[in-house]
User: Fold this.
Amino acid sequence: MLDKIRETLIDYVHKESIVFIGDREEIPLDISLIEAGLLDSYGIIELVAFIEDTWNITIEANDFTKEKMGSINLMAKLIRDKTEK
Amino acid sequence: MNHCRQCLMPENFPNLRMDHEGICHLCRKHSDRPAGFEKDLLLYDELIETSRKGGRKYDCIVCYSGGKDSTYTLIQVVEKGLRPLAFTFDNGFLAEQAKRNIAGVISALGVDHLLFTPNLKQLYEIFHVVLTRRLFDASVTARLSPVCYVCITYINWMALELAMEKNCSMVVSGFTHGQVPKAVFPNNPDLLGQTFQKMKTLIADHVGFDPDLFYPVIDRETFAQKTIYNINPLLFEEYNPERILAKIAEVHWDKPPDTDACSSNCLLNRVGNYCHYRLYGFHPYQYEISSQIRKGSLTLEEGRRMIEDISLDPAARRILSTLKVDG
Assistant:
């Protein structure tokens, strides 16, 4: 399940980011998408809206942290935990 | 250069994909409503109710530039029965008519107002740097010009500082479709801190002062204790410039005669657009204008006129000279 979530997130960044130019394989999994220059803070907000709609979960304000959402892998884990609840 | 037939997005815009019919991927996936529309509307109503019952002097901070959209937003906030503290950031290039508008509107609405001017010597040094160097990556330049980014970053942080000081849960702004992704979203110290720090680090190498001492400093721990929401009420409605102009005429707002087609308060905007185009090859309002064309708020012709308005007038040339930037 984690793999499928991760793939969906990678697809999103690859296709929907208004700034990412490159191959899907170049998208980093373990560093902040902001630090990597793939998304700005508004891009993250768009991504959160996508996550909420896709998995029908709510990302609370206190989920909005680097520890929980600071990379694609961390986001995938957060989504898995919320969908399994 | 090729542009999308439906929304005018240029083919050199970062990550834009054009299909064989000459239509961009943004048009193909376009939705009339921003993400999370219904949920955001409910949350906004809840925040309004909670804030009104809070018994505080101010229910929200309104980022009030004096332009038409933020004037309309300020009126809406007052009409909802909220007590706002309006906050204006003066970057040294507010149009004279914008200053008159600000004074007239806050007086007509009967709201408290804070006008803040930062250290202009340092701010101009930053403007010089971002107008002459390709300092920012596409995560910034796809949405706005470097000078707008410098000011808006300051305004966002200062509004948050004020919201914390006044114990408000809402920072309300007049952003429109294409400028921000959602009508309501929570601020987060980590996320904002990352983007803010990235910008300060980029600037620090080129200016003769410490950007940490120029920009507002927000205590992360205090920030983390309270959720402050950014609210953009214009995303809840169809953007209609005529309706906005009619509404703000009631508080005697007049369009400044000397601003460019994309601004109704700031004389630096024309310079920002010109230099952004020169540095990055597309208009900084492109994403916003194309969003509004998709939504039907602007016609193709209106959008084209705005995008093509990147020339310098004598006032803009004087500003370039003030900022020591070649024309």
